Amino acid sequence: MSHPKKSNFHLIMFPWFAFGHMTPFLHLSNKLAEKGCSSTFLLPNKAIQQLQHLNLYPHLITFHPLTVPHVDGLPPGTQTASDIPIQFVHLLAAAMDRTRDQVERVVRDTKPKLIIYDVAHWVPEITKAFGIKAINYSVVSAAAIAIVLVPARNVPKDRPITEAELLVPPTGYPSSAIVFRGHEVRSLLFVSQPFGEGITFHERISKAMKESDALAMRTCDETEGKFCEYIGSQYGKRVFLTGPVLPEPPKIPLEDRWVKWLSGFQPGSVVFCAFGSQIVLEKNQFQELVLGLELTGLPFLVALKPPVGTSTVEEALPEAFEERVRGRGVVWGGWVQQLKVLEHPSVGCFVSHCGFGSMWEALMSDCQIVLVPHLGDQILNTRFMAEELQVAVEVVREESGWFSKENVSKSIKSVMDKGSETSLRLKENHRKWRDMLVNNGFMTGYVDKFIQSMHELVN
């Protein structure tokens, strides 16, 4: 790879200590480095080893290790959100806040033009003291920010927000399709929970956005333009779009075992199901999901973490399941190369939790898309894909939040029945969006415009 010429535009990247945040920040750093922008990337020591291979421009992107201070109650050695169960994450936020002195020192030493950050709401206090600018960068969908984290969503300070309040879209919300249903709201009540010492999640993110010099969103005008405009008008800020900032396709080929297995099936016939690195299902729901895949009669590859209370996926499988699906179904508890699996010609359907990264990977693929969201922003991403873009189907859940094997099977069959009206409509809509996204100039156009916006902000 030829080295881009270094410009004098240097910035600091400071993402939340979770891989779903650090990774997209690093992809953005790579895109900016391609154009000569250098950056100092602040992250926990342990994360450096795990992200090193994704730094495509080590002569322009310098990883600076932060020591994560101990906070009472946080398991010893915790450095990132993936080290701990979700109930400890508020303590990790407190630990991040205690890195403030280290961050100030780096600002003093490197003299950047600006800092790009997300959840560290105190960053603008540092930048104002040094006379530099701060951009708050959201790596989740603009639709999710626009429904939950805008001033019009008047979250009470003296008591937690109620389910009934969250069911009502905020004033001016630009979509009637992307809303919560009753059973889904529970996953969003975390916004009024503590996230750090003496601050709730909602207060933290709202402050981080309000105090910034500009907002940036990891999305594009074509898909979420109206949501970005709404957020900008709510906060009275300029909103810069980076585009989806997808990683370069990995150079490492798909593991041999999967190439061999997938190649035993007809093109476009295999269902691939994966829910990312954070989702851990209850055992009964895990069993319902795999039974739903069995019911389709199609070949399938499932990559999921072992469910709650089990140490392997094998011990959680329904009775006699492995015998029944032998030769056409695999349930795998380890990591798989998701992008590479989606590229394989035999894979025709992607069953996803619709995390924001997986959402874009699904859009860039040739596969039909079936969505089973679990958490707040995944639910909104799902609604966006299924009802705004109309490129996917969502598995119907009961009022309790339970999804049945019958509904899993029905959703997959509806998109895999090649002659059906649903299948044809989704495929055609998906093709239009994918063609736009893979167009050569599309991504670079957003990055160029983002760099121009940063220059205008600091000059």
DSSP summary, beta strand count: 13
Number of domains: 2
Strand order of the largest sheet: 3-2-1-4-5-6-7
Stretches where pLDDT falls below 50 for ≥5 residues?
none
Name of the level-1 CATH class of the largest domain: Alpha Beta
CATH architecture of the largest domain: 3-Layer(aba) Sandwich
Helix content: 40-55%
The percentage of residues in β strands lies in 5-15%
CA gyration radius, whole angstroms = 22 Å
The main β sheet shows up as: 7 strands, parallel
What's the shape? globular
Mean pLDDT: 93
Give the name of the CATH superfamily of the largest domain. Answer: Glycogen Phosphorylase B
- Number of distinct helices: 18
Instruction: State the end-to-end distance.
Output: 32 Å
Helical/strand content category: alpha/beta
Task: Provide the CATH topology of the largest domain.
Answer: Rossmann fold
Keywords: Glycosyltransferase, Signal, Transferase
Signal peptide: 1-20
Enzyme class: transferase
GO molecular function, one term: UDP-glucosyltransferase activity
